[in-house]
């Protein structure tokens, strides 16, 4: 594995090919389906981490491990819940705040029940289900380590961002630090920003976004981001990714948690797509300027095979991802 | 790159195929160590097999710590993690193999240490440790047993199972680290925040052990450890160590006076004792750092550190060889008559 290369303070980034031909997409999932499952997993990790009273850094690491894992494995083969549990378990150890297996199982079981609107009865400690979950965690942990080649180092942009805020004399501003921090959280939560860009660029981007919204001008001669080793193009791209989150809602009850739920989910999605294509055929010719970005359960937009439809649905967020040279 | 998906699996399988386990050389709390061969180069390696039981709590923390820190650290005086691979449900760490360790050398009383030998060992230890500390890694288990020695004389720090990052103020660390004899006073008093000082204290104890050829502060229990320490170095007062009394497990000890080190270390030079003393300062904030220690006059004064190839080496013997050697030694010390008697009793054939 990578053990011959010296590990640096930079994160492992993906190549364009890895980004476009993810295992899940090769397995027949659409970009949107993969995206929503990734988001779902990160949401699950964040919620579980809060219930487990883990420090934020453990959740952040877990989410990044989770994101990285699914560039090596397919969402059709590995369940969001299992890898989610495994990432939390592993990240807690990596960040030196290990959590008990029993607590982890209880929390994830509680969350699965909650997401499915089931009765929130605690899981009996000696039930088969409990053992199965325990086993799933241990297996998932191994799988993650294996697929990532034991590279569990994760660099987070939080500290860097605070330093940048200091440099830009923004620490005392009433909204910018808080907002930028929030964007960092959300960016990590929901998109693959963290596998495409290095922490300093991400830090610049959230500051750029927050300062823009607050209407605070920042030094332009030379441009402040150049001094901080970032490019405007990357900054805008990340900002677009982060902002795009706020236009989507995640259909949580519908998303598959376990591996047995994946195929029925994909079938349901297929049917919706077919119905949509059907409807479109019937009303074809009429409405060219139908608003593309509002039917966002994400299901409708992406699964259609028609190439023109796909490009249309991108208007709300810049989807094209520039891949860094660091990879 | 036709199948990106199986990339990791293929790599893992390729790595696995490249190693052969030859024989078991040791068993620890969470791992079995094998002597192995890297087939592509015929190089001898140590393979640490970590058992991952199905119903335990997943992968052992120390294994993870070891992998995580060793991936980061590359230094001539730190053992190299060559590869990591899975086989079945076991995790295997492929490490450099070194023939002996400092503990064996210290115990092997047939070897006489020259001052230059000790100097070079200390130099190598400090270089390795300085590299750890500069990368914000605490070793937390420095002891002669974890300082490995290769046939070329090179010393390497090993066993990073307790290692972790430090320097983050306000983060609580556990005080239950380091083998007792080498444990720093702040740890014995239960300090939850500490830094490089714990490793330096341990090195100080190792330094003293190299000079004495015996453990310097062999306490039987944690309390006795403190007692032993204070007997040797004097009970610290508030001026020696400000803030000592606010440590969680602080206990007031009987007052022992401080005995000058030169009374115990009669053969050691003034610079040697000065360095030793600055490593064994009670106040962790005033204790010397690895970097400062490397710049200490001790390392620049004569005698020069013994060249690597002339450093004493301990040849690790197989059980059969050891038996043979002991028999020979025994026979050497006996008179002709005694030998005959023993032969009869033990039925020695040769």
From TrEMBL, chain A:
Pfam families: Cyclin_N (PF00134)
UniProt GO MF annotations: cyclin-dependent protein serine/threonine kinase regulator activity
Similarity remark: Belongs to the cyclin family.
Domain of life, per lineage: Eukaryota
Organism: Lunasporangiospora selenospora
Transport found in the keyword field: no
Protein name in the entry: Cyclin-like domain-containing protein
Region (Disordered): 283-327
Keywords assigned: Cyclin
UniProtKB/TrEMBL annotation, chain B:
UniProt cross-references to PROSITE patterns, sorted A to Z: PROTEIN_KINASE_ATP, PROTEIN_KINASE_DOM, PROTEIN_KINASE_ST
Family matches, as Pfam families: Pkinase (PF00069)
Keyword Phosphoprotein attached: yes
Region (Disordered) residue spans: 309-331
Primary location: nucleus
Sorted UniProt keywords: ATP-binding, Cell cycle, Cell division, Kinase, Nucleotide-binding, Nucleus, Phosphoprotein, Serine/threonine-protein kinase, Transferase
Record field: compositional bias (Basic and acidic residues): 311-323
Gene3D superfamilies in the record: Phosphorylase Kinase, domain 1 (3.30.200.20), Transferase(Phosphotransferase) domain 1 (1.10.510.10)
GO CC annotations, alphabetized: cytoplasm; transcription factor TFIIK complex
Start and end residues of each Protein kinase domain: 19-299
PANTHER family referenced in this protein's UniProt entry, alphabetically: CELL DIVISION PROTEIN KINASE (PTHR24056), CYCLIN-DEPENDENT KINASE 7 (PTHR24056:SF0)
Family to which this protein belongs: Belongs to the protein kinase superfamily. CMGC Ser/Thr protein kinase family. CDC2/CDKX subfamily.
Protein name: [RNA-polymerase]-subunit kinase
Organism: Lunasporangiospora selenospora
Lineage summary: Eukaryota, Fungi, Fungi incertae sedis, Mucoromycota, Mortierellomycotina
Gene designation per UniProt: KIN28
